[in-house]
């Protein structure tokens, strides 16, 4: 199944999540306007994220509507990581959030 991982930037935290372009084919088609994807996070809570594809030369898709609520509810901050996966069935996507921590002297990613 298709997926992507991303360490979150200040823009991802404060404005919108910029989605890697290679993942566009795994999202519902849209024509630059808004479409809605249903997401299930690690807690089993269903989330609805609106996404759109910017017009012009920079066609990178972004999650905007609902994204900042998710960031706030999960207490995410720049440097945390999300893992976004396609899954079978409905909803068709799952998202996990992780934070880097030190465990026995080694840096590891742990779900938050």
Task: Explain the overall architecture.
By secondary structure, the chain is mainly beta. It has 2 helices and 8 strands. Strands 1, 2, 3, 4, 5, 6, 7 and 8 form an 8-stranded mixed β-sheet that branches. The protein starts with a strand and ends with a strand.
Task: List how many beta strands DSSP finds.
Answer: 8
Helix content: 10-25%
Radius of gyration from the alpha-carbon trace, in angstroms: 14 Å
What does the overall shape look like? Answer: globular
Number of helices: 2
The secondary structure category is: mainly beta
Query: Low-confidence stretches at least 5 residues in length (pLDDT < 50)?
Result: none
Strand content: 35-45%
Pattern of helices and strands: EHEEEEHEEE
N-C termini distance: 23 Å
The overall pLDDT average reads 84
Largest beta-sheet characterization? 8 strands, mixed
List descriptors:
2 helices; 112 residues
Secondary structure elements and their pairing?
Layout lengths: L2 E5 L2 H5 L2 E2 L16 E7 L4 E8 L7 E3 L3 H8 L6 E6 L6 E11 L2 E6 L1
Short account of what is shown:
This protein is mainly beta and 112 residues long. It has helices at 10-14, 67-74, and strands spanning 3-7, 17-18, 35-41, 46-53, 61-63, 81-86, 93-103, 106-111. Strands 1, 2, 3, 4, 5, 6, 7 and 8 form an eight-stranded mixed beta sheet that branches.
């Amino acid at each position: 199944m298709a997926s992507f991982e991303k360490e979150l930037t200040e823009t991802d935290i404060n404005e919108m999540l910029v989605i890697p372009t290679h993942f566009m084919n795994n999202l519902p088609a849209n024509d630059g306007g808004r479409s809605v994807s249903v997401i299930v996070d690690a807690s089993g809570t269903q989330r609805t994220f609106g996404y759109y594809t910017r017009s012009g030369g920079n066609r990178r898709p972004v999650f905007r509507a609902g994204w900042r609520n998710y960031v706030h509810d999960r207490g995410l901050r720049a440097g945390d990581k999300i893992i976004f996966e396609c899954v079978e069935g409905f909803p068709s996507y799952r998202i996990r959030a992780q934070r880097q921590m030190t465990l026995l002297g080694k840096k590891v990613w742990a779900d938050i």
